[in-house]
Design goal:
The chain is mostly helical.
Length: 175
């Protein structure tokens, strides 16, 4: 199935404005797009701008197609992964950048997970710290009690829930 040749003016125009577009705009998507929509948009754009599909073009246009193709792939890699997409959306919302390097997305997610494990509120962090200290002393009952207190301040904290469940399992096992 042969792909119709892309208009050289379209290649040149997109290459010129590409740095001003966010990943959603580049793939012609709305920010709430589903994974399936992202995949379809990527495959459609990828077929149009892939260097192999445009190897008969003159050198400047081929190079522009290669740059566009790389950016389309970058956009797809970020938007298809829920963690990376969440980090990217947060950066877009804060107005900090239209692009995100994959390492930055991973780091942002790790920082968010660490903060969640420690707690989002001062009281949550305080009781989490007390639970950690009790655990180091070997006082499982106090650790559970402090995690329950932390949960009263942060009922939806997944890290706190997991730690409390683990402590209760240890208690059941008699450790």
């Amino acid at each position: 199935m042969a792909q119709a040749a892309i208009d050289p003016h379209e290649i040149h125009a997109l290459a010129r404005i590409m740095d001003e577009l966010d990943y959603y705009q580049l793939l012609n998507l709305k920010p709430g797009a589903s994974t399936a929509e992202i995949r379809r948009a990527f495959h459609s754009s990828s077929r149009s701008f892939h260097p192999d599909a445009n190897r008969t073009l003159e050198e400047p246009l081929r190079e522009q197609c290669e740059r566009i193709s790389k950016r389309i792939t970058e956009a797809y890699c970020v938007l298809r992964d829920p963690r990376r997409r969440k980090a990217y959306d947060a950066r877009l919302e804060s107005g900090s950048s239209l692009r995100i390097q994959l390492a930055e997305a991973r780091q942002s997610h790790e920082e968010q997970r660490k903060a969640e494990r420690r707690g989002a509120t001062a009281q949550g962090r305080q009781f989490h710290g007390k639970a950690e200290a009790a655990l180091k002393r070997g006082d499982l009952a106090a650790a559970i009690q402090n995690m329950q207190m932390a949960m009263t301040f942060e009922a939806n904290n997944a890290g706190f829930k997991a730690m409390l469940a683990e402590l209760r399992e240890r208690q059941k096992a008699g450790r």
